[in-house]
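Reviewer 2 asked us to include a model.

Predict the structure of this chain.
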Amino acid sequence: MSSLEFQQLSGAHAALAGRVASLEADVAVLKTSVAKAPKRTRRQARTYTVRSGDTLSAIAAGLGIGDWRPLYEANKKLIGPDPDLIQPGQVLTIPA
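Predicted model (structure tokens):
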């Protein structure tokens, strides 16, 4: 290896070492910011307990949901095939 090639290789090595050091510093900053970030908690599902005289459309309107159908779809297993047959005491899951 010639002296010129050695100098070029040494320069490339020094530049690469500098880039690696910079990346390691960036990773350390990211790790610190992730450690300080608030932990995400699982969002608790909102529910509504059916009262006597309730209808899906009235419940949806009261909750600010424009249409009762998403409320029905979210609770179809509980309600059954007829959305007009909700029962007092049923706990409906409010769709997000």
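The CA atoms of residues 77 and 92 lie 10 Å apart. The chain has a mean pLDDT of 90. We have added this to the supplementary material.
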